[in-house]
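Protocol step 4 of 5: obtain the predicted structure for the target chain.
Materials: sequence only (see below). No template structures provided, no constraints applied. The aim of this step is simply to have a reference model before the mutagenesis design in step 5. Sequence pasted as it appears in the construct record:
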Amino acid sequence: MNRKIAVLLIVASTLAFEIPVYAGLVATQQTTGHIRIINGTNAGISVTPTLLDFGNVTWGTTVTKQITVLNTGDCVENINATATQTALVSGFLFKGLFPRHQIVVNATYDTAVFNSPGDYSFTIDWTATCS
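Step 4 output (structure tokens):
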């Protein structure tokens, strides 16, 4: 180990003291690395809530509920939603949802499309494809 010695001179009253001071050596190190960034190939989504209950709604009105769609895949996804009933606004398409990101979709139900009040069921089919 190589050490450089410097002398620090302290004068107190009439006495002089010499104190050796060791200057540390500088050490360097270099780290190399590599990364390959690819677009994944595994599409996946999580949709909540799994049951969309609009409850009791006055006939002839519209009502909106929010649905959250989370990209659980490893690729940038295009999300498509299609409803089985015309009363539910359908044909939703979102392009470019990044992995681990989410969007909130407003699902609007228009009860005026029906001729009368009643109980109605529907499904929404969600599709995610890697873009």
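Step 4 remarks: Residues 6-12 have pLDDT under 50 and may be disordered. The chain is about 0% helix and 45% strand.
Proceed to step 5.
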